[in-house]
Amino acid sequence: MSETKIHVYFVPGLAAGKEIFKNIRLPEDRFSVHYLDWIIPEKKEPIAAYARRMAEFVTEPQAILAGVSFGGVVAQEMAPFLNLRKLIIISSVKATSEMPFRLKFARKTGLYRLIPTRLMLSSDDLTKFAIGPRSKKRLQLYQAFLNIRDHRYLNWAIRNMVCWNRKTPDEDVVHIHGDSDIIFPIKHIENCRIVEGGTHIMLLDKGSKVSRKIIEAIND
Q1: What CA–CA distance (Å, rounded) separates 90 from 96?
Q2: How much is the mean pLDDT over the chain?
Q3: How far is the C-alpha of 8 from the C-alpha of 60, rounded, in Å?
Q4: What's the rounded Cα separation, in Å, for the pair 54 and 40?
Q5: For the residues 35-45, what does the mean pLDDT come to?
Q6: What SS3 class is residue 76?
Q7: CB neighbours (10 Å) of residue 209?
Q8: What angle is formed at CA 210 by the lines to CA 220 and CA 164, rounded to 5 degrees?
Q9: What band does 144 get if pLDDT is binned at 50, 70 and 90?
Q10: DSSP alpha helix (H) spans, the chain
Q11: How far from the centroid of its chain's Cα atoms is residue 49's Cα?
């Protein structure tokens, strides 16, 4: 019966929709899966206030919350407002210490404010920002899933990703990360479960491996 299942809520990556999880498979007899949609932020809304609003969509107690990339950051901000069974982040960071130099530099200099989000609404430009200028095949694979084009959301999300100010990682967070992630390089990441060959889009091209890591994390 459904009440005996473990409820898992997924938060997608920056500008992505629920379709990004199409290759993630959890046994239907054990898990009930829910996908959260991004909401449009209020003007100058702090990330904690936004996270509180997002947390209202997690209606089951003792659920699993899993966030990807920027969704992992938001999931960590949502956690204090929820009674979670477990918090999982994928291809993300747990604190500013895990961010790459380029994001720290963008924060220090304020260069992120110069990103023309109104002009980034084409798939190619948005994809390159989200996953980096890698292979054309990977860009094409990912761009179909970037469906949040609202410039208010993009401005807010980019600012809050670059300027996220968590100094101390939450030791209870389960972190799943690819060793070939160029957005958040593995050399900066501590205490994670490694997916060999996993890139920043490993949800799509290594879905079975990531699925197994998620199930292992829930079972632990």
Answers
A1: 16
A2: 85
A3: 9
A4: 10
A5: 94
A6: helix
A7: 18
A8: 85
A9: low
A10: 47-55, 70-78, 101-109, 123-131, 136-143, 151-162, 202-205, 207-219
A11: 18
CATH topology assigned to domain 2-219: Rossmann fold (3.40.50)
pLDDT tens-place string over residues 93-124: 999 999 988 778 777 776 556 454 444 444 45
Give the chain's length. Answer: 220
Rounded-to-10 torsion of CA 123, 128, 134, 139? -20
pLDDT reading at 175 higher than 50? yes
Q: Note the pLDDT tens digit of each residue in 75-99.
A: 999 999 999 999 999 999 999 999 9
Report yes or no: 152 and 136 within 8 Å, Cβ to Cβ. no
- Domain locations in the chain? 2-219
- Say if CB 186 and CB 177 are below 8 A apart: yes
Please state whether 132 falls in left (phi above 0), alpha (psi between -120 and 50) or beta: left
